Amino acid sequence: MVHTRRRMPTILILVATCMGALACEKPKRTDKAMEAAVAAKVAEAMKAVEAKQAAEAMKDAVAVRVAEAMKVMEAKQVLAAMKAREAANAAAGLRVAEALKVLEAKRVAEAKKAAEAVKVLVALKVAEALKGIESRIVEKTRLSNLLDLALAESKLEEALKHVTELLVLDPTNEAYIRQRAALQEHVAKQRAHAALMKLLQAIRKEKDNSKALALCKNLLAEKTGSPEVHVLCGEVHLQLSTEKRRAGAQPESTKHLALAKSQFLKAQKIDGGNQRARFFVAEIQSQLNVTYPERRASYNKAYLCDRNSWLGLLSKARLSELEGRPDLAIRYFGKASIEKRLKKDVGIANTALCARAELYRRVQNYNKALGDIDCVLKNSKNDPDALVLRAHVRLIQGDNVGALSDLKKALALDKGNAMALGLRAHLKLLQNDQKGALLDCVAALKIDRNCYYPYRVRGELRLTGTGIDLIGAEGDFRTAVRLAPGVADNHYWYGRLLQQNDDKEGALRAYTKCVILDSGHWRALCNRGTIRRLLRDYDNALRDIDSALVLQPKNGTVYFQRSKVRWIRLRTKGIDYKERLWDEVLSDLDIAIRLQPKLSDAYGRRAFLLRRRKQPKKAFADYDRAIQLKSEDVYVWYGYRGMLHAEYSNYKKATEDFDEYLKRASSTHQIYARIQKEKARCLREMEKK
């Protein structure tokens, strides 16, 4: 209503305006028209006024609504602002509360940690105090045990050290004080004893053995229970034994050897684990030719004392050598590193190197044998044992001049070296000086009855010399085998004797032992093949001879022996002169004759084959050569040449050959009767002519 009253003047002004306008128009119009026009205009004016009023009302309504909306919005904003402020205040309050709670929790935790730390510190201090007490008790117990152990093992210096440490822990203990005083006195004596031992070792290095022996006696008088003194005394006796032997005083040498053995046995009795004592006992037993089981047991005990020490390895090497296993012995000598021990323990190292060189010689590795010998001679220029061993190697290699030179030097240094005399006897035997060889053998056996080599050389003399003595030879070879069962040549020569005595089984056993000890012994293989041929074991016989040919491809005798095996196998199996198989026999005979032109039996056998092949000229030439060489079986070739003459009607020459055969042959010979018949036939044919 307020708005309508305010707008009325505007409407009246509009009506007045319209009325004025109408009054000013032309009077031609009528009043009705005027009224209608006025009414129309008033209506239009009213419509305009209403439209304006409606518009203004709309504006006012909009303004009111806008105002109301603004108020609502302001109210909402105020409310939202209040809520936001309240929320912020609440959040701030919560944060402060949480911060306070966290602060309180931290303070509580720190307080707890501090309390726990205090408790832990107190506990640690208590534990340390307890540990200190316990450690003192434990240390005291430990030192007491060590003291008892040192006293039990007679380690006086260690015992003194432990007693001193116990007195630090318990200074007022009177028992420890008394024990320390007693130990100090004993240690002083022991140190004086050690000084004497060092002096003894120095004297031994200077090789003044008489002085060393006197000092040993003093040491034994002062301290009889020390195994080291007994060992040193035994070693001095060993050196004296070697000196006396080299000077030719064999009885005194044997006496010192026995004394040395007794000293080592005393050391062994006091200390069963003394490896050095056990090793030297075994070495002396080898020199004294104690039976094989005892020597084996001694070396085995020495090895078991300490298997990894160099003396233990040397004992194992000696044991393997004694058992006939040279390859294994060489390996253990290598493990012992004896070359590195030369400066530390010259005597044992030289002995071990010589032993390994001997093994290398047995397995035919002569270069390594000479290397070991040179190593010994580089350290000890005048070692007679090394010189003898080098002479042996040179003798095998065919250097007789060098061998003789070494033997002269060795015998000048060691007059009582039986091995050197035995080797010189062998050299004289090769030079066909049988008398000189026998004299050297006898001299060697006077010096040392336990040296195998002079027995073997004397056996060879008795078996192959001018005065054949099979019984004496058998005794010599048996003694050599007994003294040195690990030497292959001893079994070989014993096998030769048994073969000559027609003991085929015994010879086969001897040759087999030789081959087991030395697989490269071609003579033993060849002879074993011969024995197996006689025993009709042709396949094994061929195998042995083929093995010998691999080792000795340029030896005519071996080819000849193979031809004999092939010959008899063809005859025995009934293979009647098949050319291809007999060609092998003929080829072996050709090679044997080419390599060894003085092999008479090879000519005779080849002549027999040529006769079968209808080649009389060549056959006659071979028979003539076989007879010319005058072998032991020369009568056989007379008989066969006579039969060849008879085949070609040369009855006179045939009869002459038959007479030679019958003159020389035994009536039990396989072709004896046949020759008699052939001779009778030739005489009849001659009568007919």
Explain what this protein looks like in three dimensions:
With 689 residues, this protein is mainly α. 82% of the residues lie in helices and 0% in strands. The chain is built from 30 helices and no strands. It has helices spanning 2-23, 31-152, 156-169, 174-205, 209-222, 227-246, 250-270, 275-287, 292-305, 310-322, 326-335, 346-362, 366-379, 384-396, 400-413, 418-430, 434-447, 452-464, 470-483, 488-500, 504-517, 522-534, 538-551, 556-572, 579-595, 600-612, 616-629, 634-647, 651-664, 672-688. Helix 23 runs antiparallel to helix 24 (556-572) and helix 26 (600-612) packs antiparallel against helix 27. Residues 1-7 have low confidence and may be disordered.
- Shape field: elongated
Q: Helical region count?
A: 30
User: On the 0-100 scale, what is the average pLDDT?
Assistant: 80
Radius of gyration, in Å, reads 63 Å
Biggest sheet overview: none
> What is the rounded distance between the termini?
204 Å
Beta fraction of the residues? Answer: under 5%
Helix content: over 70%
Provide the low-confidence segments as ranges. Answer: 1-7
Outline:
With 689 residues, this protein is mainly alpha-helical. It has 30 helices and no strands.
Descriptors for this entry?
disordered N terminus; single chain; 689 residues; elongated
Which secondary structure elements does this structure contain, and how are they paired or packed?
Elements (H helix, E strand, L loop, with lengths): L1 H22 L7 H122 L3 H14 L4 H32 L3 H14 L4 H20 L3 H21 L4 H13 L4 H14 L4 H13 L3 H10 L10 H17 L3 H14 L4 H13 L3 H14 L4 H13 L3 H14 L4 H13 L5 H14 L4 H13 L3 H14 L4 H13 L3 H14 L4 H17 L6 H17 L4 H13 L3 H14 L4 H14 L3 H14 L7 H17 L1
Helix pairs in contact: 1-2, 2-3, 3-4, 4-5, 5-6, 6-7, 7-8, 8-9, 9-10, 10-11, 11-12, 12-13, 12-14, 13-14, 14-15, 14-16, 15-16, 16-17, 16-18, 17-18, 18-19, 19-20, 20-21, 20-22, 21-22, 22-23, 22-24, 23-24, 24-25, 25-26, 26-27, 26-28, 27-28, 28-29, 29-30
